[in-house]
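Figure 2 data, in text form.
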Amino acid sequence: MSLPAEFGLIARHFAPLAGEGALGLGDDAALLDPPPGRTLVLAADAMVAGVHFLPDDPPDSIARKLLRVNLSDLAAMGAVPLAYLVTTAFPRGVAQDWVACFAAGLAADQAEFGVALLGGDTVATDGPASFSLTILGHVAPGTALRRVGARVGDDAWVSGSIGDGALGLLALTGRLPADAELADRYRLPRPRLGLGQALVGLARAAMDVSDGLVQDFGHLARAAGCGVEIRAEDVPLSAPAGAALAADPALRSRILTGGDDYELAFAADPADADRIRAAGLAAGVQVTRIGRFVAGEGVRVLDAAGESVQLSGSGWSHF
């Protein structure tokens, strides 16, 4: 007896990705024993065509972005990845080659990040392609990095470079000259897992930068009941982002608020600055001190003269 189309698709493309506890994707749920003495960390993110990725993006890059934005949530809590569940809503009549390429993207990043598929669901839709992934990781009890915890006087730090994802989207949609490096940063985030784990016990508060640097630092400040000042000139830029800004200074707002960075924003005691830099060096990730947490509320972006920079928005919102 042949398998129904849905189960045939799962057996062909997703069963090879199943890890221990997935039961070959043949049952209604998976079984998972967390590592002894560890606390589970869970996060979930959804992606919709035309909102979180371009409809003509390569299927493997869509799958890898889906996994990586969730891994970035684990990085923000200092967690070690363990496994994931994925729900796929493919457009009705999707080509098998498209699904195979999507699954190949998941397989590539499973190997890179040491995770495996536990299960999920697969449906067809008359709407745009939509995907949801739930990631599982683990930390030592009581050590997870949280959004709450920054204090007035703490340094504000960020990893990597800011603005590449937002500018990459502009380049891919013809609103900036084509740039392969920026496009790659939009399509393939770099979850800072090693850095997040190295910051456990050092960072007082942390989160990943998904909705824009200004907005996400605002979340950290609000959780702490204080404000934060960011020095615009100190925000780290990649070479192509720096060149784009030099050619069009109006891009400053897009860089600071556009989102899709998936870097880590965090607060730390100024006395720990050398240890923070050493953690970044050990993780192979640039870390940059870009401001400080202050009394008051909200986010102030300052220019080189210490004057407030006016931005066209604060960050991404779905509503």
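Caption note: The longest strand covers residues 80-91.
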